[in-house]
Design goal:
Layout: H1 5-14, H2 31-35, H3 37-40, H4 53-76, H5 87-90, E1 94-101, E2 108-115, E3 132-136, H6 146-157, H7 165-181, E4 186-191, H8 193-206, E5 213-217, H9 232-252, H10 265-268, E6 275-278, H11 287-300, H12 304-310, H13 315-322, E7 336-341, H14 348-352, E8 364-369
Helix pairs in contact: 7-8, 9-12, 11-12
Organism: Salix brachista
Protein name: Fungal lipase-type domain-containing protein
Keywords: Hydrolase
Length: about 375
């Protein structure tokens, strides 16, 4: 099922665009204040316990925020004491090794950080920390970057992000870092469009047997907004119908691996389990909730085989394949640690924003989904 084109365009225009448009009004903090770590950052994490899920999530989200502010510093020509980006990583004893620049609009879209804690901060939990984090920002709805960012958002919709030059720059950087320091020392993190980039990089590496820890905040899942339906029976009925249609079309187009000697690429990815952070009030990512939970319900009904075929395909991807453009839906993943923020939000912009993920008072529900 797909959303209408007008609805999709409006959704794309909001992808990751909290940076300015959504900044005012949320918690009563203005945009410039939300960029200032001393006013909006997780100051309560003076000492990070790397075994604590909240601490790990907060640091990963802050490093992503650092990329947003790097680009805003560039756009606003903030330098020296006026620049706001560095506290977002230096507070946690990371250093900026380099930033990644888009070859089309010269915007900063990612950063590579190295963890260098002082000896006074060495404790047992440091063994659980990353040595390097590669973080990706989402869309910034400002003239200097919005055109290129929205173009990439459309590539996500068309399952074509892997064909873009920005992703080529990103995956080469990931490969280089992993080749230098090893997969166990590297984290990926991203928000919105940036989460899609991190997800695609993680899937690409996982296909080669390299499993990177990944923190995906508000990663887009373009689908009909079934999760927003309040009536559970209607919601579940629509999901069953969608699964049956998708599985049938996949079978008709020979997208099934059940009777083939070839390895199912979807099942091969199941050992990679990213952390997937979603908010029910964010229609751009909330469909992950139903997508993952629906598998269990289909198993309970005794029709899990249908869902196992449907869950690794999308109607849009199958239709494009039927027209000769074979594509792998980016948002479909076999396994995930799903973390849902059920804290009430004021509006969509707050539900989609990166700032929510380091709040100390989050009401979180977590569940592991392991594809078998």
């Amino acid at each position: 099922m797909r959303m209408g084109s007008a609805y999709l365009y409006l959704s794309l225009a909001h992808l990751g665009g909290y940076q300015e448009a959504a900044a005012t009004g949320t918690y009563g903090i203005m945009a410039s204040e939300r960029e200032d770590f001393s006013l909006s950052g997780p100051l309560h994490l003076a000492i990070v316990d790397w075994t604590n899920a909240h601490h790990r999530r907060s640091v990963a989200a802050s490093l992503v925020q650092g990329v947003y502010i790097l680009e805003r510093d560039r756009q606003l020509k903030r330098q020296g004491p006026q620049a706001l980006a560095s506290p977002w990583w230096e507070f946690f004893h990371f250093q900026l090794l380099r930033h990644l620049v888009d070859d089309v609009d010269s915007s900063i879209f990612a950063a590579i950080y190295e963890f260098r804690p002082p000896k006074s901060h060495y404790h047992s939990s440091v063994d659980e920390s990353p040595r390097y984090v590669i973080a990706f920002r989402g869309t910034i709805t400002k003239p200097e970057s919005v055109s290129r960012d929205l173009e990439l958002d459309l590539h996500i919709l068309r399952n074509g992000l892997h064909e873009t030059s920005r992703f080529e720059i990103a995956i080469q950087a990931v490969r280089n870092v992993v080749a230098t320091v090893g997969e166990s020392n590297v984290w990926l993190a991203g928000h919105s469009l940036g989460a899609a980039m991190a997800l695609l990089a993680g899937k690409t590496m996982a296909k080669t047997g390299i499993f990177l820890q990944a923190f995906l905040f508000n990663s887009p899942f373009f689908s009909a907004p079934i999760e927003r339906i309040k009536d559970e029976r209607v919601k579940h009925g629509l999901r069953i119908a969608s699964s049956v249609i998708t599985a049938g079309l996949a079978f008709a187009t020979k997208k099934s691996y059940q009777n083939s000697r070839s390895v199912d690429p979807f099942a091969a990815l199941s050992a990679w389990i990213p952390f997937l952070f979603v908010n029910p009030g964010d229609h751009l990512c909330s469909e992950y909730i139903g997508y993952l939970e629906h598998r269990k319900k289909m198993d309970d009904f005794g029709i899990g085989a249908i869902e196992r075929l449907a869950t690794r395909n999308s109607l849009g991807g199958l239709l494009m394949g039927a027209m000769g453009r074979d594509s792998e839906p980016l948002h479909l993943i076999p396994s995930a640690n799903l973390i849902v923020n059920v804290t009430p939000c004021q509006d969509f912009r707050e539900a989609h924003g990166i700032h929510q993920w380091w709040r100390p008072d989050l009401d979180i529900k977590s569940k592991l989904y392991n594809y078998k």
